Amino acid sequence: MDKQERIEHIANIRAAQAESLRLAEVLIEALPWIKQATGKTVVIKYGGAAMTDDGLRRAVMSDIVLMKLIGLKPVLVHGGGNEISRLSKLLGLPVEFKGGMRVSPPAVMDIVKMVLIGKVNQELVAQLNEHGHLAVGLNGSDGHIMKAVQLSEELGMAGKVTKIDSTLLTDLLDLDYIPVVASVAVGEDGQAYNVNADLAAGEIAAAIGAHKLVCLTDVDGLYADFEDKSSLIFRLKLSDARDLLGSGTLSAGMIPKIEGAVMALEAGVPRAHILNGTICHGLLLEMFTNEGVGTMIMPDDENYSPDEFKASPLNNLALKLHSEPVV
User: Fold this and answer.
1) Overall pTM > 0.90
2) Annotated active-site positions, please?
């Protein structure tokens, strides 16, 4: 190695050391907020395009594992509408929606169960378990976690959640597992029902007393005007979210997301977030960075300004988890 090569080698070493020091400082600075995160329960609704892209899905699963490793207790609730539609078309079955709900006659309901329980749920569990023995796959009939009734005759086996039995979920969380719940509920007669995953996640968050509900979708969050991408709403009060539901201005896909968030906050869940699951590691960006990447819905009685978000890499974690700062 000549003199110039040695100089370059030393410069590379010093650059690597500087980067390592920066990362160490981030971790040390984050330590108080990581300590505050311990034991907090977060319900994550997962679906849309982020689910169909394998790379994005692995990134989301890695984010969830990281959340668990720093002390959070994640619960994953998933749909799988794109895959249901794809398989239905392949088998010559109709793909029809009314009022934002999938029309689910018995033949389509069989597809729903095949996709959500037999395929998507198992794939998500397998990807989480690549990082260790972490996840357990469930659906509404397991321990009768999620009870439902038929929404209407014209929607077939589309259901409305009537009750969440959180016993099995809390037992699994206490045993340090990540419950992964397919959005298929069970009726009193044992019949399976296709329930909206956004609403199922809201119901589960409310029932287990979660500290946060996060809905991963295909858009960046809630827009005041969807055509104007600069109109993203970063923070929204609960009363404003209720008003939006009654305004008739929300898209069919956004309605159940806001309904699920309102339901959760009315039951005492301190925070609900709507964010773009197609942004790589968007879940971590929303949870653990100053700016975040989505829409946060919060109770009416809380007031804070952007000045509260200072320069620490994770300094708003406690605010987002509705915790008191570490002294």
Assistant:
1) no
2) 45, 48, 81, 198, 257
